[in-house]
Design brief:
The complex is a heterodimer of chains A (278) and B (254).
Chain A lengths: L1 E9 L5 E10 L2 E7 L5 H9 L6 E6 L2 E2 L5 H4 L2 E4 L10 H8 L8 H10 L13 H14 L4 E5 L7 H14 L5 E5 L12 E6 L2 E7 H7 E6 L8 E5 L2 E7 L10 H9 L3 H10 L2
Parallel strand pairs in A: 3-8, 3-9, 6-7, 7-8
Antiparallel strand pairs in A: 1-2, 1-4, 4-5, 9-10, 11-13, 12-13
Chain B lengths: L8 H9 L2 H25 L5 H8 L1 H8 L11 H6 L4 H32 L2 H4 L3 H11 L4 H21 L4 H34 L1 H6 L2 H40 L3
The chains are: A alpha/beta (278), B mainly alpha (254).
Chain lengths: 278, 254
């Protein structure tokens, strides 16, 4: 369980990146959405302990991550957009880095690499960006930390590899683990998520379980937007609409539509629906 | 895996293994380079212009020491370094001890052993300019502290820049290390010049005698107070730099 308590973060230049972020993030796979510069990576940095918030704190299982004790650090791994290490291969890196993580599963690491069509003995610096990503994803998912933070994990991956990644994340997401995935390409990993968080200009405007969103909102396609529609967009001659959910219909979440709705001027209508049954 | 907050040497060494490819190379090649340069210096010490070449050769181990700590910034990631489950104190201790103790020892011990062996063989030591220069520097015994400190300050500055800067770490470390080296050289030059003037003023008779050993002794005694002061001041500066490095490890953010 991750607890974000009134977190604010301001860059040295004075730019406010995050304001008053408060949320409880339970175990499961969570999608972190937000426009460019909304503060997604900053939030991931704070959760991982790479940045210290100006106010508030982040706790993982009751331990303040900003203390950076070995115990708290062992609970988290953050796979950034571009990681580098001095070892020649990812296996050699794993040999010196994984001893810090007691739950590292070498068999799972080998299996993940095999699924991506890699051996782990390829020279890291000669790999393409996509293959570098694959090898690091295979490793970070095998670390089995309580909290795994993935920043744009599908970046640079081909279509087949994205499907493999989806299977891999689903397989690795065992109980008592929280995975937060920040991505702009939601469709690569959809149906995986247990929760969704959305940042807008440094504020966390949504942090809900997928079940809660589904119980309050329906995502439908209609030739014309229904009167009860709170948000709609025209798409290939039809309208994709968000309407209040009723008991008879249950639809899968359209994360793209939800994102567009919450970034639009109609965001409050959608958020009011989500809050209405609380 | 031990996740206690108590300082663990085992964890500090494990942290060092993250930089293993570079560190292994240094552990192997630094003593070899030191031995090779010392032997080459002895050979060149018999030639007419050998002293000039040995002076140039002596820069190689010095540069290897000054920039040795760059291993902590080459193809590494501050995310990985910061997130590794070890205390900041363990990370800082390994980095500082390796850069400021292990590396200088790797370069100096083999050289000192070669010098010690060479001085014990009269046929080797006789008329060798490299050994004479060594003996000369040993005559300035009061400057031993300053000698150590002046070789460690550029190394410490290089390491400090490495932990302070988050981008262009290597470049900035090299630049600041060179700046500190220039500063030390200017300071050393001023002290040497002032001591020479002082010697000329106070001990003109020694100069008139034309006895090189007497001149060296006189210069050494006139430099002694300045070298002691510089040595102590250098120690304080070094200590401050090490403290800042430790603080940076504690507070660094990406």
């Amino acid at each position: 369980m991750i607890e974000l308590k009134d977190i604010s973060y301001r860059y040295r230049a004075g730019l406010e990146a995050l304001t008053g972020i408060t949320a409880s993030i339970p175990d499961g796979i969570h999608l972190l959405l937000g426009e460019n510069g909304a503060g997604k990576t900053t939030l991931l940095h704070i959760i991982s302990g790479l940045l210290f918030p100006n106010t508030g704190c982040c706790e993982i299982d009751g331990l303040k991550i900003a203390d950076r004790t070995p115990e708290t650090l062992s609970k988290v791994f953050f796979l950034a957009d571009n990681l580098d290490f001095p070892q020649l291969t990812v296996k050699k890196f794993a040999a010196v880095h994984s001893p810090f993580y007691s739950r590292f599963d070498n068999d799972l690491f080998e299996e993940n690499l095999r699924e991506f069509g890699l051996t782990g003995n390829e020279k890291f610096r000669s790999l393409s960006f996509g293959n570098k990503r694959k090898s690091l994803l295979a490793y970070s998912l095998a670390l089995s930390t309580d909290v795994l933070l993935l920043d744009e994990p599908a970046n640079g991956l081909d279509i087949g590899s994205k499907q493999i990644l989806r299977r891999m994340v689903a397989k690795c997401a065992v109980n008592f683990r929280t995975i937060i995935i920040s991505t702009h390409t939601v469709t690569d990993l959809e149906y995986l998520f247990d929760g969704v968080m959305m940042l807008k200009r440094g504020r966390l405007i949504l942090s809900e379980s997928v079940g809660k969103v589904q119980s309050e909102l329906s995502f439908i396609t209609a030739p014309v937007p229904p009167v009860e529609s709170v948000f709609s967009i025209q798409n290939l001659g039809a309208f994709r609409c968000i309407v209040p959910a009723d008991e008879s219909t249950e639809s899968e979440i359209d994360f793209v539509l939800l994102y567009l709705a919450l970034q639009s001027k109609d965001a409050d209508k959608v958020l009011n629906l989500l809050k209405s049954e609380e | 895996m031990d996740y206690s907050n108590k300082f663990s040497v085992n964890r500090a060494i494990k942290y060092g293994r993250l930089f293993s490819p570079w560190i292994q190379r240094q552990l192997l090649f630094y003593p070899l380079i030191s031995i090779f340069i010392s032997v080459l210096s002895i050979i060149l010490g018999y030639t007419t212009y050998g002293i000039a070449f040995t002076a140039l050769l002596s820069f190689i181990p010095a540069i290897l020491q000054y920039f040795g700590s760059l291993v902590f910034g080459m193809h590494t990631d501050r995310y990985i370094e910061t997130l590794v489950p070890a205390t900041w104190c363990e990370k800082a201790t390994f980095t500082v001890v390796y850069s400021l103790v292990v590396l200088p020892l790797l370069l100096n011990i083999p050289s000192q052993i070669i010098y010690w062996i060479a001085t014990r063989i009269p046929s080797v030591a006789e008329g060798n300019s490299w050994i004479e220069v060594h003996q000369l520097s040993k005559a300035l015994s009061s400057g031993w502290l300053w000698n150590i400190v002046q070789s460690l300050i550029p190394t410490a500055v290089c390491l400090l820049a490495l932990v302070i800067y988050s981008s262009r770490r290597i470049l900035m470390s090299v630049v600041w290390s060179i700046v500190s080296l220039i500063g030390i050289s200017i300071l050393g030059g001023i002290v040497g010049f002032m001591s020479a003037i002082k010697m000329v003023k106070e001990d003109i008779n020694t100069l008139n005698n034309n006895d090189p050993e007497a001149i060296i002794d006189s210069l050494a005694s006139s430099m002694q107070p300045s070298l002691i002061i510089l040595g102590i001041a250098g120690c304080v500066i070094l200590l401050v730099i090490v403290c800042i490095i430790f603080r940076k490890f504690r507070s660094r953010q990406v």
